[in-house]
Design a protein that fits this description.
Layout (H helix, E strand, L loop, with lengths): L7 H19 L6 H19 L4 H8 L7 H8 E6 L12 E8 L2 E8 L5 H6 L7 H17 L3 E7 L6 H5 L2 H14 L4 E10 H5 L6 E5 L3 E3 L3 H8 L6 H8 L3 H7 L4 E3 L10 H19 L4 H13 L8
Parallel strand pairs: 3-4, 4-5, 5-6, 5-7, 6-8
Antiparallel strand pairs: 1-2, 2-3
Length: about 325
């Protein structure tokens, strides 16, 4: 497991535990279970202390941890009979966006998500989760498909942002993102979003303007990355920690501001330590949110969604 800078003291204890277990397995009559238990209690205590006081900059590191479960990890566990659908019917297939039909807790849904990949080969294949215009147009196509057949939409958001390359700009990146946001706001079916890692810029909101926005405890969601913000405001990316604090990008800040609707707890030490547990928690939260939305008629659903986003940012000043 990749160890973050602020987790080094915990990593040292865990290394001792692994060493003791190895000794115990290889030596008859040696019982060191009590010592292992004592060290494990110390690990848990340190993790509670560290993760109970994470700074925004440290939250960014946790949200970007390469061993956090990604979109396909959630789909494999939570979605039955998943049938991927490819292409935007205009230009090409974009592997940064995964989408298709499946059943979540027995309910037929359209599932869309951003996939980063988990090793060098898959990261290149999925372009590190950074979609091009064809990816957002594929997402739009699937949202319209859901609307046509009355299927709820579930999206998994995890991207540093839309792909910033010249070829993407030449094919209308900004327009594709804007149209995707418009589609999110116009479909008349229940729409639930979960931010599972990094929600970066318009590339994230293009798939996140739903009726319910759920967010993992240590995920982040922001208009710009801390590094990008620091480069603009301070002209120096070394101020990224200051930018992270100023951006209010943590789940706790965003819930207070009314940008998201619910925080999903992560296992002690973050989602990367117990992926199976966090996937289960996300599945339960998505199922509950969809159940609540399915009882609302489409006209009221649209009205509530529009009101939700129109009210964001209001200060009460005339």
């Amino acid at each position: 497991m990749q160890i973050l800078e602020f987790e080094k003291s915990v990593a040292e204890l865990e290394a001792k535990i692994d060493e003791l277990r190895h000794i115990s397995d290889g030596s008859r009559g040696v019982n060191i279970a009590d010592e292992i238990s004592r060290l494990q209690d110390k690990v848990d205590k340190q993790l509670r202390h560290i993760y109970g006081r994470l700074t925004p900059s440290q939250k960014v590191q946790v949200a970007r941890h390469p061993e956090r479960p990604h979109c396909l990890d959630y789909i494999k566990v939570l979605v039955e009979d998943f049938t991927p659908l490819a292409g935007d019917r205009c230009f090409a297939e974009d592997q940064a966006i995964i989408g298709g039909l499946g059943r979540l807790s027995g309910r037929a849904c359209v599932i869309i998500g951003q996939e980063r990949g988990n090793d060098t080969e898959s990261r290149i294949k999925h372009n590190f989760g950074m979609a091009k215009p064809e990816g957002y147009r594929k997402a739009q196509r699937l949202m319209h498909l859901a609307d046509r057949f009355g299927l709820p939409i579930v999206t998994f958001v995890d991207t540093a942002g839309a792909f910033p390359g010249v070829d993407a700009e030449a094919r209308g990146q900004a327009e594709a993102i804007a149209r995707s946001i418009e589609t999110c706001l116009s479909v008349s079916v229940p729409f639930v979003t979960c931010i599972i890692g990094e929600g970066g810029s318009g590339g994230a909101i293009a798939m996140a303007a739903g009726d319910r926005v759920l967010m993992l405890e240590h995920a982040i969601y922001s208009v710009i990355s801390p590094e990008g913000c620091a480069s603009i405001l301070w002209r120096n990316a070394s101020h990224a920690a200051d930018a992270a604090a100023a951006l209010r990008l943590t789940a706790q800040d965003l819930l207070q501001l009314g940008i998201i609707d619910q925080i999903i707890s992560e296992p002690l030490g973050g989602a990367h330590r117990k992926p199976a547990d966090v996937i289960t928690h996300v599945g339960e939260a998505l199922t509950q949110a969809l159940g609540e939305l399915l009882s609302i008629d489409s006209k009221s659903l649209l009205a509530q969604r529009h009101e939700k986003y129109l009210n964001m940012g209001k200060t009460g000043l005339n």
